[in-house]
Amino acid sequence: MRQTYRIIGLAALLAGLSYLVQPFVVALVPVVFGTTEMVTDPAVLRGALWLAFIETSAFLGVAVGMGLLVVGMDELLDSPGSVLSRAHLFLGIAAALGWLVVASAATSFGQEGRSVFFQAQALDIVTGAFVASLASGIWWIGTALRSRRAGIFGRPLAVFAGLVGAFTLLPSLFGLPWGLLFQIPLFIVLGIAFLRRAGNVPPQPSIEALRA
Length: 212
Description:
- The chain is an all-alpha fold.
- It is built from 9 helices and no strands.
């Protein structure tokens, strides 16, 4: 149990801190390239491989963190294998896969890849963000309800997770995945809360101790 709490806490912090890198990159790019316009010229961007590395690493961190968080929460909730619990798990995995698609898009420097990715105007490039937004929004709402019912989340954290899930889901229904930004503070708060809780959970006795 302690290990599960610790994994969930570290995974949430990994996702939150990785995602927090993206707003800084967006703010840094105009300064680096000396322009206030969105940089979409592939010829210019090919000379900034560090940008692709940072963005890919950031989104990959979100994907890995989200995936571990989903699996850890599923184990903590001790899902009985019902249709709803399986759907909840699959939605979380879909959200993590969506972030993997975003990470792969961040490595593209082609005219139809990198420039459109920065503009975020073509659904074929922002599909990953849309899937992550839609799936994670529903997953967070389900997690808030199930975790509150199981006594894993207190009321404040459950309300916070439910609201973030709603604010993530609703804009995505209109093709706008920007509600994902609300998940940054949720990841960080959840990570800190679960790491603190992991320190308060008594360790389980080993098998050798039980046999003795």
